[in-house]
Amino acid sequence: MSVANLAEGQYLKAAGLALFLTCIWFGSSSGRQQSPNAIPIVRLDKTRFALGEDIFFWEGVQQINSEPISKKYQDTCRRIITLPDGTQKTENVGWPIDGAPNSGWLGGAHLSREIVQLGRYIIVFEFAGQMTAPASLFVEDTPILKQIKREFVFAKLRDDHAVLDVRLPTTEKVTLIVNNNSKQALRFPRLGGSGPSLSVSIKRIDGSYANDFFYPDNELSGKDQGGIGSIAFDVFSWEIAQKVPTITLRAGETYRQELLLQAAFDEAQKSLPFKAGKYRVTFSTELPILIGEKTGPWVDLSPVRLPASTTVTCIFTR
Q: Looking at domain 38-140, does it have CATH number 2.40.160.180?
């Protein structure tokens, strides 16, 4: 064999080896799964809940690094709930429509009232085939909640089945009333600012109009109280109660906050004007309430998230 033939043979072997390695690299690269670059999370503010309150927790997706989360994983979120009787309920969770579309997020979630019962619940959040460690919470019978009455009262409404005639513009008012019939002091943040928001729903009886929105914040907090409740917080606590406008109700006391109906109607007109007619109007909020004192027996249950909601039928005329 000549030197030329030997060199040519070695060259062909080297070229073949390079081609073989290239094919392996491309094959492994094309078959490689893109990392979800995030992990699921679930978080409880407390583990003891009272029967009758809103069972609230946090869930979401946490990015591992600055790389974006691929869109193909954004429809893989699921909430798996194990009920006290051992049955499981699986719920698909959509990706948030607000915020950056390919980044991590954390949002509030609730147990639907239809499945709430006494006992232990186990919650797992799933994303891209990954699951969180089980988070346990307990729902307890707490009779004191029956002694805390919350409602919105429309001044001229004679009974629950009456129809309220409203001539627009109106000076009519609706009043949030909280009665403390317990033997414990109650504390909750004032509506508005960083405190609870007030939801309003206006729906025409014939189904031709529906508008859900928030009551204007400046009307809740008061125009003469600039910066009220400007400290942001996720959980209302005794420490937070010292920093934001807080209502304290002693045993047997009643709290009232009057709200102008016209302020709600003006807010509705901004987004979706409505005409004269017959409507169902709902005012609702959720009050995080601290029961008793920080060193008392209710500390692990506090705050309890108690809803207040009233729906009335109104006939609007102009």
A: no
